[in-house]
Amino acid sequence: MKISALSLFVFFLSTFYLSGQAASLIVIDPLVENVAGNIKSTDPGQVVITLPDEGNPLKFIANKLKESQYDEIHLYVLTKPGSIIFDEINITSENIGDYSADFSEWRSFAKPESTILIHSENLISGQEGQSLIDKITEFTGKAVIVKN
Q1: β pairing state of 72-80 and 24-28
Q2: Looking at residue 44, what is its pLDDT?
Q3: Average pLDDT along the chain
Q4: pTM to 2 decimal places
């Protein structure tokens, strides 16, 4: 199966960075670091980080969201049909309940009007993928859109 890079965008529509630009957190999983390696912080409102090799990446992201108000969150990880793959965890529609508390933390640190955009060629190519997206929507309380 083709594995593609995934980017996850959360847009907070009502907050803008002091320079007038949207503040962005760009999170890159080590598995796609060489693919996403050309992403650099070119705007003072952008923060680019790589997930640590160990630990729960969802909690790591929640902690970063707790530190600062970001208008956008860009997440680059691997995907395959019905699955989001971080370095240490593979989230599917069958096991996403194990991570519901982590996604719920995202809900508490994001603004109500946030939208999550996932860029993936193959995440929702089957019913499992749409079920996964529906669960992320439920746990985060945000609209989730998957774009190719």
Answers
A1: parallel
A2: 77
A3: 78
A4: 0.77
φ and ψ at residue 77, rounded to 5 degrees: -140, 175
Q: How confident is the model at residue 100 (pLDDT cuts 50, 70, 90)?
A: very high
Q: How far apart, in whole angstroms, are the C-alpha atoms of residue 130 and residue 147?
A: 13
3, two tokens = 């594995």
Q: What are the sequence ranges of the domains in the chain?
A: 4-140
Angle formed by the axes of helices 100-109 and 127-140, to 10°?
Answer: 50
Mutual angle of helices 57-67 and 100-109, in 10-degree steps = 10
Rounded (10°) CA dihedral 117, 107, 65, 94: -70
The C-alpha atoms of residue 127 and residue 136 are separated, in whole angstroms, by: 14
Given a contact cutoff of 8 angstroms between Cβ atoms, the answer to whether 39 and 26 are in contact is yes
